[in-house]
Q: What sequence folds into this?
């Protein structure tokens, strides 16, 4: 199994997911494509947590870039042995995976809390900007007849539910991919070290045989 190729495949997937996460988070700032709610500070508190831009976005871009460029990162090798350098690169990718897990985990937690808490909107009943579904603990998601309680922004429940759900799913996939790369990086690093030791052993044996043959040749010449 080519562990480096697997890592690059994970890297490209993380790159796409990170960009999707950034776009979804940006859209949360502009309900129905309008900018006035952001300028008037009428956005929910979870929208401003930057969980899609920072967490599922930039922090996940770090391992994505590392994995994509992994085939060029051999850590300069060890004592001239390329396999040792590749093992170093694979093991270092595990550290990048932990950064991705941190970012995707943050994205998952904030998205789940936002869906449970509900949107921040203007209600006709209270005549004020409030969180009308806080007490439902996410139950409002299945009570479509109550969504009309939010008068402004229009369709804010659908808007937030769709985008936060996308961020939740994206964060979950990113988390799984980074966890897979942790296993892949450890296995790739250990297998590379074993392979490097085998190559060193074979090289040592070949040198020993060549030395013995040379000695026999010279001994033969001297006897003759």
A:
């Amino acid at each position: 199994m080519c562990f480096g190729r697997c890592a690059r495949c994970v890297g490209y997937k993380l790159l796409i997911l990170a960009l999707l996460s950034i776009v979804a988070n940006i859209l949360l700032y502009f309900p129905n494509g309008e900018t006035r709610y952001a300028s008037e500070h009428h956005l929910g508190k979870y929208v401003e947590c930057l969980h899609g831009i920072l967490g599922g976005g930039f922090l996940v871009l770090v391992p994505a870039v590392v994995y994509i460029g992994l085939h060029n990162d051999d850590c300069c090798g060890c004592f001239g042995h390329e396999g040792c350098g590749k093992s170093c690169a694979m093991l270092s990718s595990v550290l990048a995976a932990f950064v991705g897990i941190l970012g995707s985990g943050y994205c998952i937690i904030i998205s789940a809390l936002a869906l449970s808490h509900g949107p921040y909107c203007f209600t006709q009943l209270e005549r004020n900007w409030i969180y009308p579904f806080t007490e439902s603990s996410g139950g409002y998601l299945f009570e479509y007849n109550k969504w009309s309680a939010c008068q402004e922004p229009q369709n804010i429940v659908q808007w937030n539910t769709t985008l936060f759900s996308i961020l939740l799913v994206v964060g979950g996939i990113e988390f799984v991919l980074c966890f897979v790369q942790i296993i892949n990086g450890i296995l790739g690093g250990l297998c590379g070290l074993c392979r490097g030791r085998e190559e060193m052993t074979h090289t040592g044996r070949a040198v020993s045989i060549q030395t013995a043959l040379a000695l026999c040749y010279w001994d033969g010449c001297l006897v003759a």
